[in-house]
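ingest -> validate -> predict -> emit
validate: passed (alphabet ok, no gaps, 52 aa)
predict: started
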Amino acid sequence: MIDQSDLEDESGVDIALMRELLKLTPAQRVERMVDLVNTMQEIQAHAKAARK
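emit:
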């Protein structure tokens, strides 16, 4: 059985995700965030168009 404390810190932050992100260079982290923002903007645009 997996102990939840091995997966999260005391604040509930996913440690595995943090480790994955810290392996990236700052430029790679920015690129990833830009990709996520672009995806969210596309989703919002499609949702707005669907409401019309």
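The longest helix spans residues 26-51.
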